[in-house]
């Protein structure tokens, strides 16, 4: 399965098409520990399926770009695969609901040898908080009501409004050094961060090489440049063919690669270990513009009630379906614990038919439904490069055909996704996923401005109950906010603004290495094995 991103602003990077998942389900050993059989030095080779385009951490939005950012740039805190925050550039912090104070490590340096200080961190936060810069983090994570200042090695970030997620929002920003802030365009082809590794060579479309820095001493869980098992070099190769990547894993030429298709069987048979991330593979969204039949909640409810979630889920997940736990699927998994607070409807074709009758779509000649002489036609979109999507979409079509619905299947490439969802709005539903790390980002899609007004609500959702709960949750205390956000999520499910048909696990296969993968490979956790 290939990864597709679409966007109207940097915040829209959370929209993930073609079954991308970004939340940790398990991890191999890493962190500050030493893996059994670890061997220091050598080259760690990671295969990625597409070129990042550019390497600017402040504006890159593709999955490949965000993965590459993590090899050279670091944040104030490290989010472990289970969503726990531990110190990184900051040694400690004290968080309130309108202010958070970080104490930074002494002696942090950038890849150019210059110091990285609390003032550097403040400059980063203030840069992202300026809407004119339109950075990757601006919006739900870093908003214009935030400001930062430094005194010595202490960073203080203040919000004009209540923000129960100040730690997650500010602590996970990948920090750029001063030279990069002064000349952001240079970051497209070079790196300027505090990372354990720095870019030393690149051939776009082919390979990117990062070299371990000397004197690094501020990694999470005590990692330094002398930690046993670390490689000397990272080699990130662009390998577009998944079977080729699988062959390279088996030969030992590649140490890590995401494999989602049939090659998983032979890799599992070879007993290769994996790390996994949650993947909202079967999530369905709906176009609720007035002229579309899916603007009617009765139609949306009817369509999903007719579906056999087990049958279609098995197909769309390639036989590895799991129940969705939350619309939040990206680390740090804010407000996921204790959920979900919603229940998906049981499969009931008779009830689905009754709902369509109630909505005015009556069966006519040939067993097709129509209203006011207009046939009930649903345009179902899915990713052209994902075999499981096509097969599952055909099952959906067969199901709705029995219901009297005319279903038009539309296989999209990356350009078509952007055009249909954000420009022409010519779609009704399909396998379209978002992959946020917290409920505030979810709200930017379901309660934010629509694309014609510069926003990310490409579904044109207008859910009064959800809006009210979002307003309550946004001003609630840290102890109360998650319960309200989970109620808000349930409101979306109840009104069928979204239908999480099935999740699965997207696995990165490993050969000769152990590591952690909170969202992407964490370079300080890589341990080469003998």
UniProtKB/TrEMBL annotation:
<feature type="domain" description="Solute-binding protein family 5">
    <location>
        <begin position="85"/>
        <end position="439"/>
    </location>
</feature>
<keyword id="KW-0732">Signal</keyword>
<dbReference type="InterPro" id="IPR000914">
    <property type="entry name" value="SBP_5_dom"/>
</dbReference>
<feature type="signal peptide">
    <location>
        <begin position="1"/>
        <end position="24"/>
    </location>
</feature>
<protein>
    <submittedName>
        <fullName>ABC transporter substrate-binding protein</fullName>
    </submittedName>
</protein>
<dbReference type="InterPro" id="IPR030678">
    <property type="entry name" value="Peptide/Ni-bd"/>
</dbReference>
<dbReference type="InterPro" id="IPR039424">
    <property type="entry name" value="SBP_5"/>
</dbReference>
<dbReference type="Pfam" id="PF00496">
    <property type="entry name" value="SBP_bac_5"/>
</dbReference>
<keyword id="KW-0813">Transport</keyword>
<comment type="similarity">
    <text>Belongs to the bacterial solute-binding protein 5 family.</text>
</comment>
């Amino acid at each position: 399965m290939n990864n597709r991103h679409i966007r109207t602003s940097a915040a829209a990077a959370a929209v993930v098409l073609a079954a991308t998942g970004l939340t940790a389900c398990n991890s191999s050993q890493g962190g500050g520990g030493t893996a059994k059989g670890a061997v220091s030095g050598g080259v760690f080779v990671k295969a990625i399926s597409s070129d990042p385009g550019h390497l600017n951490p402040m504006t890159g939005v593709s999955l490949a770009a965000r993965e590459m950012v993590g090899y050279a740039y670091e944040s104030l805190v490290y989010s472990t695969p289970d969503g726990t925050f531990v110190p990184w550039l900051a040694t400690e912090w004290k968080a309130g609901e309108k202010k958070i104070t970080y104490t930074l490590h002494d002696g942090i340096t950038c890849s150019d040898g210059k110091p990285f200080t609390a003032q550097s961190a403040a400059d980063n936060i203030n840069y992202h908080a300026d809407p004119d810069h339109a950075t990757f983090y601006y919006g739900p994570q870093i908003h214009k009501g935030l400001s930062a200042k430094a005194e010595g090695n202490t960073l203080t970030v203040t919000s004009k409004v209540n923000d129960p997620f100040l730690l997650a929002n500010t602590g996970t920003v990948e920090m750029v050094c001063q030279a990069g802030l002064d000349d952001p365009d240079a970051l497209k082809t070079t790196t300027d961060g505090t990372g354990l590794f720095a870019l030393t060579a690149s051939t776009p479309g082919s390979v990117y090489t990062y070299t371990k820095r000397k004197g690094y001493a501020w990694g999470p869980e005590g990692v330094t440049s002398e930690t046993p098992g670390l490689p000397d070099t990272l080699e990130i190769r662009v390998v577009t063919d998944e079977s080729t990547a699988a062959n390279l894993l088996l030969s030992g030429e590649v140490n890590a690669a995401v494999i989602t298709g049939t090659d998983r069987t032979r890799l599992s048979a070879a007993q290769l270990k994996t790390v996994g991330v949650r993947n909202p593979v079967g999530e369905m969204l709906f176009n609720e513009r007035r002229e579309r039949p899916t603007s009617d909640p009765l139609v949306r409810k009817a369509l999903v009630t007719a579906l056999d979630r087990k049958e279609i889920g098995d197909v769309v997940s390639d036989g590895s379906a799991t129940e969705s736990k939350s619309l939040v699927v990206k680390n740090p998994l804010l407000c996921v614990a204790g959920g979900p607070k919603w229940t998906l409807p049981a499969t009931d074709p008779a009830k689905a038919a009754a709902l369509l009758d109630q909505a005015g779509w009556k069966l006519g000649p040939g067993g097709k439904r129509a209203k006011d002489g207009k046939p009930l036609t649903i345009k179902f979109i899915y990713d052209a490069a994902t075999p499981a999507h096509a097969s599952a979409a055909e099952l959906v079509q067969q199901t709705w055909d029995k219901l009297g619905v005319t279903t038009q299947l539309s296989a999209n490439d990356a350009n078509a996704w952007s055009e249909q969802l954000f420009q022409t709005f010519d779609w009704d539903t399909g396998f379209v996923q978002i992959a946020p790390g917290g409920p505030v980002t979810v709200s930017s899609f379901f309660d934010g401005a629509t694309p014609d007004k510069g926003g990310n609500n490409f579904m044109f959702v207008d859910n009064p109950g959800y809006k009210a709960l979002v307003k309550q949750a946004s001003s609630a205390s840290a102890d109360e906010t998650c319960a309200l956000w989970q109620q808000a999520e349930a409101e979306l499910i109840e009104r069928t603004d979204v239908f999480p048909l099935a999740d699965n696990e997207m696995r990165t296969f490993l050969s000769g290495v152990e590591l952690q993968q909170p969202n992407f490979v964490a370079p300080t956790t890589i341990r080469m094995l003998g």
